[in-house]
Amino acid sequence: MTKWMPLGCAVAVLCGHAALAQAQSAAAVTSAPAPAPAAGTAAQGNRLVMADNESFLLPLDDRKNVQPSYPPNLLAQQLPPRTVCLRVGIDEKGAVIVVAKAPASEFCVMDAEPEFLAASETAARTWKFDPALRCVFRNAEDKKRAHASCDGGKSIPEAVTLVYRIRFEQVDGQPKVHVIGG
After folding, report:
1. Which domain of life is it from (predicted)?
2. What is the pLDDT of residue 173?
């Protein structure tokens, strides 16, 4: 499995109570209420504050996940690039449970025809992931030694919502689709 690198409007949010990872400034989104934070973590408004001995790993997408297709009926129109932003809710098992249009933001201007949104939603509903993980270590030193992994700590799968920016464009008359985020 490979992780799509977060760029632009990527946001990860623990369902119901926390934004854990932000690639750049973007509005946090939430889903269904989540259980109370574990010992050592604290919910603070709409953010989860991790303890010194905790870290968070974003979910990894399956290499077989398909990108949206450029709608064939729009090819002849030779449209300028269009962008769609989606909120994709992923449960603690890595299954997609929610796909919805994300609100417009400075990182995601919503300028796309409905066909682009439909193609994006259709593809996203088929995606699969390794779940996001909250890693809990005995102490902060163990966390540092793990270096972007849960090695030596306890892995706790977490439900998250990710925002993906999907850019549709034509290059030399050929459709190109770029999925950014996660």
Report:
1. Bacteria
2. 86
Distance (Å, whole) CA 84 – CA 113 = 9
Which range of residues forms the domain containing residue 107?
11-181
**DSSP 8-state assignment for residue 140:** H
CATH code of the domain covering residue 104: 3.30.2420.10
Q: Which tokens belong to 169?
A: 């464009």
Tens digit of pLDDT for each residue in 84-106? 999 999 999 999 999 999 988 88
Buried b (16+ CB within 10 A) or exposed e, 148-181: eebeebeebbbbbbbbbbbbbebeeeeeebebbb
Our CA angle for 86, 89, 90, nearest 5°, is 130
Helix or strand holding residue 9 (H, E): none
